[in-house]
Design goal:
two-stranded antiparallel sheet, 5 helices, elongated, mainly alpha, about 30% helix
């Protein structure tokens, strides 16, 4: 595998050289560790002592399976009854945090799957059964 298959890798991405790990074949940290790093003067590596006995769970594991992220929340309240609009707006903004909310609103940051689920729960708990529809969806590698 090459990093060409995984676009957008952060420059100082932490890699893992534990090739015998049972999760190595699907772990981004291990997959990209196999790439030549000739242009880099240094690299960041997961401490091998923290992962030497990993069997089926690893706190550093990152799946190489792309995730479906959403962009744009400027219209998610368009079809909400006006009586619930302010409550939902403030609930979503509170959940995301003001700074993150505005980054997402201006499409500077994607809405990750777990955030999409949480926003959907906010709407469902308010009695809105329709799925939340975002402006755009993409599949990305979750570095």
């Amino acid at each position: 595998m090459t990093t060409n298959n995984y676009p957008g890798m952060p420059e100082n991405y932490v890699v893992c050289f534990r090739n015998e790990c049972p999760m190595a074949k699907t772990c981004l940290r291990n997959i990209v560790s196999q790439e030549p790093r000739k242009k880099l003067s240094s690299i960041s590596v997961v401490n091998p002592y923290l992962v030497k006995n990993v069997t089926d769970r690893c706190e550093f594991y990152r799946s190489n399976v792309p995730v479906k992220v959403a962009y744009g929340i400027g219209h998610i309240f368009d079809y909400v009854p006006s009586i619930k609009h302010d409550m939902l707006y403030h609930s979503v903004k509170y959940y995301l945090g003001k700074h993150t909310y505005y980054n997402i609103l201006h499409k500077e940051r994607p809405i990750m799957p777990e955030e999409q689920e949480a926003i959907q729960r906010i709407f469902t708990n308010a009695g809105i059964q329709d799925p939340v529809k975002y402006e755009e969806y993409k599949e990305i590698i979750n570095w």
